[in-house]
Amino acid sequence: MTRTVVRGGLVVTAAEEVHADVLVENGRVEALATPGSQQWAAERVIDATGKYVVPGGVDAHTHMEFPFGGTASCDTFETGTKAAAWGGTTTIIDFAVQSKGAALREGLDAWHAKADGRCAIDYAFHMIVSDVNESTLKEMDGLVGEGVTSFKLFMAYPGVFYSDDGQILRAMQRAGDNGGLIMMHAENGIAIDVLVQQALERGQADPRYHGEVRKALLEAEATHRAIKLAQVAGAPLYVVHVSAREAVAELTRARNEGLPVFGETCPQYLFLSTDNLAEPGFEGAKYVCSTPLRPKEHQAALWHGLRSNDLQVVSTDHCPFCFSGQKDLGRGDFSKIPNGMPGVENRMDLLHQAVVDGHLTRRRWIEIACATPARMFGLYPKKGTIAPGSDADLVVYDPHAEQTVSAATHHMNVDYSAYEGRRLTGRVETVLSRGEPVITAREFTGRDGHGAYTPRGTCQYLN
Ligand code: DUC
Ligand code: ZN
Ligand code: ZN
Ligand code: ZN
């Protein structure tokens, strides 16, 4: 296999920043050395002088080809993983879905059938459990054993993905026993559905009402309830897509009590707000996702949570639906707008912008986007860092390049950008996935099927 040297960059990991040459061999990082100190023979030399060399991003929350509201998210594993690579992400953890009445195994097999042989970067799966019963509880043990070590439950979407408190408690007890991690969509869906009906009866049908009925207090209440159920079950808990400051407060309180409770937020909650949902006409539909965008005042609590480590991970919840033909389903009734936003290509750049803007340090950028998601979901140090023995998933990042985000130039298979026209400082230049160049000086040089299914260990924050 080709030997590659990435020369002269500032290597940034969660733990340190050091100017170093990086030797890559057989798909792994072989060694780091003081720039120029080693005369490594290599077929490929990448000059990273003046650039950062960072671990490939780990996006622990994506939905490719995800069925929702009578349609399906419009990135395939092929288009979505290419777009991820363009944005400096080299591993995704996508959600396989159990259909009600079916086995977990059927859902997992279906997701393998969609993804296997098609991905440009490495991928793994979480399992959405939409039907907690005796047989799915048993199946959870087997899945943990084969590397699907995390299970998403929903307190939202009654009749679709929803689990009641008894089902949640049982799944948590099982995870407490088998080492699995429960990931919670924490919104009180029963109460939200009442508010949705009342809003529609009042004639409030525009996209902005999606944000009004999915109240921050109902995210906080569900977060609180999930924490207490996990405490009773003696299980760890990971709350996905936290957007409300009141929910951050619940996580902070639990962590101060020493509970193994973790929180994820997403770029859309850090950079966008209900102002976007209220854009004229039907434009707000572009920003309909759940949990919803919040008023701007919530952003400070999210940034603070990321700095204080009360929130540990930023993933995208990438779940794109085209404005034309998909978001359209909800014209005249916001509750029929498919929930989800594109973003897998934008995460590393938006978080780098947060470094430029002073919200995060460089190392914290890498920690929340690479190292911690890898540890949280049992992929570290194979993924998430740059160290001898780690997969050579490397990004040469130009911190000075200027770019303007646009649907006209992005690679996601969706007809709009949630960040259209936004100017960002910093851009991905070259991306290696296990030593193979996927992006080379901003040309796609990868191939479908290079990406490997990657079984995971259990959460590395528990003992
Ligand atoms: N939220 C979304 O916005 N989309 C998919 C599912 C979810 O929980
Ligand atoms: Zn430097
Ligand atoms: Zn969710
Ligand atoms: Zn999601």
UniProtKB/TrEMBL annotation:
The lineage of its organism: Bacteria, Bacillati, Actinomycetota, Actinomycetes, Kitasatosporales. Residues 52-435 form the Amidohydrolase-related domain. This is D-hydantoinase. Belongs to the metallo-dependent hydrolases superfamily. Hydantoinase/dihydropyrimidinase family. Carbamylation allows a single lysine to coordinate two divalent metal cations. The keyword Cytoplasm does not apply. The modification N6-carboxylysine is found at K152. GO terms for molecular function: hydrolase activity, acting on carbon-nitrogen (but not peptide) bonds, in cyclic amides; metal ion binding. GO terms for cellular component: cytosol. The gene is hyuA. Keywords: Hydrolase, Metal-binding. Its cofactor is Zn(2+). It holds the Pfam family Amidohydro_1.
